[in-house]
Predict the structure of Alpha-amylase.
Amino acid sequence: MSASTSSEYPASAGWFQYTLPAPQASLEFVFNNGNGVWDNNNNANYKATSAGRWIVMSSVSVPAATKTSTPAPTTTPSPSSPASPTPTSTRAPTPTTPAPTPSGSCYNYNGIDSCSSSTQTELPAADDQRKWQTPPRNASGWSAEYQDYRSLTGYAHVVYGSSRTSATVTVRTYLRVASASCSYTFNGVKSTSPTYQVTNSLKDDLVIVATCTDGDESWKLELDPVNFVWQNNAVNQPSGMKGGQKGAIVDLFGWPYNDIAQECTDFLGKAGYMGVKINPPQESVLTDAWPQSGQRNPWYFVYQPVSYRLYSRLGTRKQLRTMIQTCRANGVRVYADAVVNHMSGGGNDVLSHRYSSGGSCVTWGAKSSSKKSPYYTHSFTYGVNAYTNAHPALEFPAVPFGPTDFHCERSMSSWTDPLQLETGWLSGLTDLNTETTYVRERIAQYFVDLLGIGFSGLRLDALKHIGPVDTGAIFGLLRKYMGGSSPDDFISWGEVILGGEASLLACNANSGYNFYTGLDAEYAANGISSTDIAKLKIWSSDYPKEFPICGSWILPASRFVIQNDDHDQQNEGSSSRDMGDSGSVLIKDKDVAKHRSFEVKLFTRTDADWQIKVVLSSYTWFTNGAGGFPDGYSDCSGFDSSQGQKCTASVPYEKAFRAGSCGYTVDGFAGGKYTRVHRDLSIVNAMRSWVGLSSVKLSDLGITGSC
């Protein structure tokens, strides 16, 4: 910008001019009065869209009073213990977008990136020019986990040979400066090629570093370690478990990795459980300074991913791998809850935010994450990024995902409209554009990483919102990357909540959005064999009251995973499924005998040939709604009050593992108590009989005394 040289529009009157250099043909901009007050043309931005002279005037208002408050931009989808550990601080670094004083209207950019029509689903290709928002190394707001994401991002792309005793690893890098050149090190060995061949002689991590240069500038990308399936401990299990295709899986909801490893060693293996499912292991939203409904880190933050890096509030990648190998050595397989429909909620990121409410301006600051990677959304933001000179855009550099890897913002108003189901922002969560090849590839590579570190399968969260076509394509890529087939013990189960849409989603094969025969057809079209299709199951939301939802078995019962209560049902007001009097949610009903009877029935009923059954082992909630994990990260004693906020719904730390514990340790349903349902002897023996094992006594399980 420069002072105006026009006598008609003199600089003394505040005019300035800007000549757009060729070959650029358009300009989008906002005004700032030099004192932190912004004007974005009523959320539309100012735009010059063709050649010629454009005359634009702005009138900015006096700043208004600001109210700092806890935001609610994203709603949730539908004995004495040792001293609490001291979690690493999750206070976010300084926001990377300027935070001007709110204008009189408390404007933000909401609406700019919304879908402009009922048929639009993608963001314009030009929006990719708004990425590269991360501060450069050592700039204000930069932190070590930001690496050189300002200019260089990437990931390791792994493709196995057909025997899965070798793999080709390719470093896929993405550069802000296209002319840069890159070199690589693989376990310290330098190479100019991004491709590296690995065999089963490699017994430990593959460590990769990419270094890219352009003139005097240099950027470095340090990738997380890569592990391979041949490095995993063998799992020895009874023949009744059919090599991982039949058995009971315990959902240890909110259990840290170290505690799970202890539970595998002390109990799960000898009890006869086939496996354990853990919460999403990927990096997710975490904050100490900005509570949600008075809670420090409610449970549903783990369902708001920031990246596919395996660093969770429940443990590091190293702790995860150690836990998995410990469980496998004790005859227990491990399954991941995978969140790939979306990333974090709009407004949950490292920026500053605001919106107008009741004449006040509600503001909140930067959130962090479980590995402190940078991440950006456009929701509730204002100002421009200091490095792109554009308003904030969707970007998750540690994946990496950019603006055009997402659907345009669309709220959901219909549960029978396939377009809304697949492309809408479920509860304000930033919806991935899984129709694109890159997004499909990146998700499939995340699954490859999960299998490489030792997982035997996964639950797919919100599968209904990914869609049958995209799901088939993603699993087709996984088949390809794993050498042409899935491992013998692999299983997955997708969350498809049927609600009142059973005809669309399940019963009508010609609905165009069918997850029974329709999804199977997509699997087959993507080269997946019938043997491997049988391993890809659907979570039975019609169990236990309404199955089979179509009146008869469209798919055999062996293709469905069943359980009594699930983690979503614990949330007050949840309508995820109606069990009526055919099931029981333990922490709501507060009736141990009733709940036990339904868990036992899960294994003793003989009316269908289900092969995978899940037992939820969770924790009790507080009457004030506090429902964060009792892992220490939801304990108000660790809250950072420097931003003037208050944590009012605390969940004190309790150690999840308790050697020799009985089941149903609910302590009168006091809040924050791990329930350990899976340790109940009646449930254990019902489960054992189902997989062809003999009954056991408490003493056989290491439990002394009576329960």
